[in-house]
Write a structure and sequence with these properties.
17% strand; 358 residues; 37% helix; Rossmann fold; elongated; six-stranded parallel β-sheet; seven-stranded parallel β-sheet
C-alpha cells in the first residue's frame, strides 16, 4: 500500500517545531510520508533534519500589526511563498491530504495554498494567547486545536477544539532513563534537587539570582542550573559538588523535571505543558517581553491547576530567593503524581488519520 502523505508547517521558534516532531514521530510509526514546509534556513530546517521524509523551503515574511516599510517588502516574500507552496502542494496532493500547521509566519502561505488546493487544514495553537499568524491562518482552517482552555475564546466555536499540548510520551511516566546527570544522582540523593532553567539561551535574571544565593542554596540543595551558552564560562567557575551548570540540556530534560524537588523556570507553553503532564508544581518567572505576555498566562494555568507559584520579573528582582523557596510548598514525589491519561499527541494523530482511507 502506498504511503499516505501529510504536510506539516510551522517555524520561527522551537516552540512551534518541537510539538510537531512529537506528532511526526507517531505518524512515521504508521508509515506516513512526512513533508515539512518551512523557511530556507530557520530553526525548523535544523530541528526537522533527518526526522521528515522531505523538507521544502519557501520564502517567508513577517506579518505585523503596525505600519512599517518592512511590511511592503515582506508582503512580496509572502506572495512568493504562496506561489511556491501552491506549486509544490499541487504536485504532492494525490488524494486526501492533511496540512497540519503549528503556527509561525512561514505557515500562513502554506495554509492558504493548501486551502486553494482542497487539502484539509488543521491548526494547533500552543500558547494561551494567539499569535497573529495563527489568527490569520484560522480563517482558512477546517479545525483549530488548542493546548489550553483559555485559548478557546479566540477562535470560532464551530472550528475550535481543546486537544491539549502534544507532549512526548516520556512525560506521561515517572520512569527515569538517566541515573545521574553531571555527577548528581537523580534516583537517590541525600539533599533535595533544585533544577533551574531560563530556557535554551539561559536567563541573566535567573542566573544572577542563583549566583547571589549560592551560599544558602548549596547548604539546602543539590543544584542543576541551565545557564545558557553565553554564560557558561562565568558559571562553570562557580561549580562545586553541590552546584552543577550546563549551557544546554538535551534529552535529559524529562528526567531532570521528574527528579527535581523544586523547579525554577520560565514558562513557555512547552515547559508548562510538560510539567502539568507530570503534575509537578513549579516556580515560574514569566518572560516579561514575551508576545502578549503569553508566558504569564501560560503560568497562570499551571497555578490554577497545580498551585504552581508565579512571580513576575519586577517582583522576583526584589525578593530573596530563600524566601521564595521556603514559601513554596512542595508535596513529596510519588508515582501517583502521574495518572494514566491519553496524551494529546494520540488524540491529534487520531484526528489526522481519520481523514485518510487507511
Amino acid at each position: 500500500m502506498d504511503k499516505k502523505t501529510i504536510i506539516f508547517t510551522g517555524g520561527g521558534s522551537g516552540g512551534h517545531v518541537v510539538p510537531a516532531l512529537t506528532l511526526i514521530s507517531k505518524l512515521k510509526e504508521d508509515n506516513f510520508n512526512i513533508v515539512y514546509f518551512g523557511s530556507y534556513s530557520g530553526i525548523e530546517s535544523k530541528l526537522t533534519s533527518g526526522k521528515v521524509d522531505s523538507y521544502i523551503g519557501i520564502s517567508t515574511g513577517k506579518i505585523r500589526r503596525y505600519l512599517s516599510f518592512e511590511n511592503v517588502v515582506d508582503i512580496f516574500k509572502v506572495v512568493i511563498g504562496l506561489i511556491q507552496s501552491l506549486w509544490k502542494i499541487f504536485f504532492i496532493k494525490k488524494g486526501p491530504v492533511v496540512i497540519f500547521s503549528m503556527g509561525g509566519f512561514v505557515s500562513v502561505p502554506v495554509v492558504i495554498a493548501g486551502k486553494i488546493c482542497g487539502a484539509k487544514i488543521f491548526i494547533h495553537e500552543q500558547t494561551t494567547r494567539v499569535g497573529l499568524a495563527n489568527k490569520v491562518a484560522s480563517k482558512f482552517a477546517d479545525k483549530v486545536f488548542v493546548s489550553f482552555e483559555d485559548s478557546l475564546k479566540f477562535f470560532p466555536k464551530s472550528k475550535v477544539e481543546l486537544s491539549g499540548y502534544p507532549v512526548r510520551d516520556v512525560f506521561l511516566t515517572n520512569e527515569l532513563e538517566y541515573k545521574t546527570y553531571l555527577g548528581i544522582n537523580l534516583k537517590e540523593q541525600e539533599k533535595p534537587i533544585l533544577f533551574v532553567t531560563g530556557g535554551g539561551n539561559g536567563s541573566k535574571l535567573l542566573n544572577d539570582k542563583i549566583k547571589s544565593s549560592l551560599d544558602f542554596l548549596t547548604r539546602e540543595f543539590n543544584i542543576i542550573h541551565q545557564v545558557g551558552a553565553a554564560y557558561i564560562d562565568e558559571y562553570r567557575a562557580l561549580q562545586t559538588s553541590e552546584y552543577k551548570v550546563t549551557d544546554f540540556v538535551g534529552d535529559e530534560m524529562p528526567d531532570l523535571f521528574k527528579a527535581a524537588d523544586i523547579i525554577i523556570s520560565r514558562s513557555g507553553a512547552g515547559t508548562v505543558a510538560e510539567l502539568m503532564a507530570l503534575k509537578k508544581p513549579s516556580i515560574f518567572i514569566p518572560l516579561k517581553i514575551a508576545q502578549k505576555n503569553e508566558q504569564y498566562h501560560n503560568a497562570m494555568v499551571a497555578k490554577a491547576s497545580l498551585s504552581s507559584k508565579v512571580i513576575e520579573e519586577n517582583e522576583f528582582m526584589e525578593m530573596k530567593l530563600e524566601d521564595i523557596i521556603r514559601s513554596f510548598k512542595v508535596s513529596k514525589k510519588t508515582t501517583s503524581n502521574v495518572q494514566s491519561i491519553n496524551s494529546a499527541s494520540n488524540f491529534l494523530v487520531s484526528k489526522i488519520k481519520a481523514n485518510y482511507s487507511m
